[in-house]
Amino acid sequence: MSQKQSVAVIGLGAMGLPIALNLHKAGFPTQAWNRSPGPAQIAEKDGVLICKDVNQINAEVILVTLPDLPQLIEILDAGLRTALKPGQFIVIMSTTSPVEIVSFAKEMKEIGVKVVDAPMSGGELGAQNASLSIMAGGEESDFNSVKPVLDAVGKTVLLMGPVGSGQLTKAANQIVVAINLSAIGEAITLARRAGLDANKVLEIFSGGLANSAALELRRPKIQARDFPAGGKSKFLLKDLHFALDAAKSSETELPMTSLVTQLYAGLIEHGDGELDHSAIIREIERLND
């Protein structure tokens, strides 16, 4: 039986921490680095090797779960670049610009480091249960090399095409999420203002064609009107801008995405960017005040 690849996880946030724990549980020699000590202590207690400095990272596959590509560039400049070796893989699980990820991959190729973009969907619950949907972009041979690692944290792991294809797929995914949550917000705002019991309305939605994973996962927050962050609204707005940028480059009209982007921009302007993306109902309610 061949030895499992060594893996390092950079960023132990809401997604990165359970990913690191699941990799260790699956038998992968797992390292991790995080800026703040709290999540690192949790991972270390579970058996993950914690690197105090990024230049201590020494793994065959490096998974990046930082918010965006600029944060990774910052970490590279802080010492990770000196630790990189030809033949290593950087798997970027963050949601980034499809255009910028292609440029980054070319830069890494010059030093012999292979890049696979592999953004994920499924939220914190998917990360905890190792049931994420992972959409990858890269060379087929590179994807096949890192797929055992991705299979340990995801339920659906697919190669979508060359580098950047994963990010394009994620942008399309986020369009569906944002429009779905906005539609639910509009429907429940209408129901409440018309005097209906919103909880009963949501129950009807859940039992029919209006049901969705977004509704199932976010229904408790919408019912309680309490929106602690799972996926932050400010990050979904970033993703929507990536989608619109991609649409512009391919001369594709996205009328619904443009409208929903304006709604999320308003939500962030009103100070709700740290809330869960299902908090879009707050912006719809404000429009009706």
UniProtKB/TrEMBL annotation:
| GO MF annotations, alphabetized | NAD binding; NADP binding; oxidoreductase activity
What Pfam families does this protein map onto? NAD_binding_11 (PF14833), NAD_binding_2 (PF03446)
InterPro entries per the UniProt record, alphabetical: 6-PGluconate_DH-like_C_sf (IPR008927), 6PGD_dom2 (IPR013328), 6PGDH_NADP-bd (IPR006115), HIBADH-like_NADP-bd (IPR029154), HIBADH-related (IPR015815), NAD(P)-bd_dom_sf (IPR036291)
Annotated keywords:
NAD, Oxidoreductase
- Keyword NAD attached: yes
Question: Highest lineage ranks of the organism?
Answer: unclassified sequences, metagenomes, ecological metagenomes
UniProt domain 3-hydroxyisobutyrate dehydrogenase-like NAD-binding: residue ranges:
164-282
Which chain positions lie within coiled-coil regions?
none
Q: What is this protein called?
A: Unannotated protein
Domain 6-phosphogluconate dehydrogenase NADP-binding: start-end pairs: 7-161
